[in-house]
Amino acid sequence: MATAFFYLFAFVCVASALMVILSRNPVHSVLYLILAFVNAAGLFMLAGAEFLALILIVVYVGAVAVLFLFVVMMLDVDFTELRQGFLQYMPIGFVVGVIVLIELLMVVIGWVISPGVVANPAMQIDPSLTNTQALGGVLYTHYAFFFETAGLVLLVAMIGAIVLTLRHKQGVKRQNPALQSARTKAQSVEVVKVQPGQGI
């Protein structure tokens, strides 16, 4: 039964991930992304990583994917304009894809040549600890630097996404904090001398 569920979750996860890329409707893409997250959580549950499975459901499906769905549905995003100039990034994308493919092949070849490496982890974990305790201890002690680096990478990706999708509409008034802070008394106050008996 475990093997059957593994193949079921894996097939649906890969198929939904492909549909995220191939779907023309962005709302359908987000729905397929939610399906991929749910099946990935099922794979984590089969592997015994129940904490990761629940975090994937609560954080990604319950927050991130739903946020994507609301953003796509509520904002009037012109995806035709965003897709313009897509072909100029094809060489870089091809190079990155080849590098990822080589890395995956190296992992598979290494596992075929010496399958005992997977059975001998680099760090021994106390079997008396629960899954959550062991994960927290490893993540926030031995790999704290890499964890913080991943947070910085996500921050840069978020800023890049904001910069790429930010569109300034013409005729809309908005604040400029730099100009507001640089205002002087001469720019802000105008003294008018009013003669007696006359209005302003």
Q: How would you portray this structure in words?
A:
Keywords: Cell membrane, Membrane, NAD, Quinone, Transmembrane, Transmembrane helix. It comes from Labrys monachus. The chain crosses the membrane at residues 6-23, 30-47, 53-77, 89-113, 143-166. It is found in: Cell membrane. The protein is mainly α and 200 residues long. It contains 10 helices and no strands. The chain has helices at 2-22, 26-46, 50-74, 79-83, 90-113, 116-119, 131-142, 144-165, 177-181, 185-188. α1 (2-22) packs antiparallel against α2 (26-46) and α2 packs antiparallel against α3. The longest helix is centred in the N-terminal third of the chain and has 25 residues, at 50-74.
The CA-CA distance between the termini, in Å, is 88 Å
Taking all Cα atoms into account, the compactness measure Rg is 27 Å
What proportion of the residues is helical, as a percent range?
over 70%
Low-confidence stretches: none
Pfam families: Oxidored_q3 (PF00499)
Transmembrane segments: 6-23, 30-47, 53-77, 89-113, 143-166
Keywords: Cell membrane, Membrane, NAD, Quinone, Transmembrane, Transmembrane helix
Protein name: NADH-quinone oxidoreductase subunit J
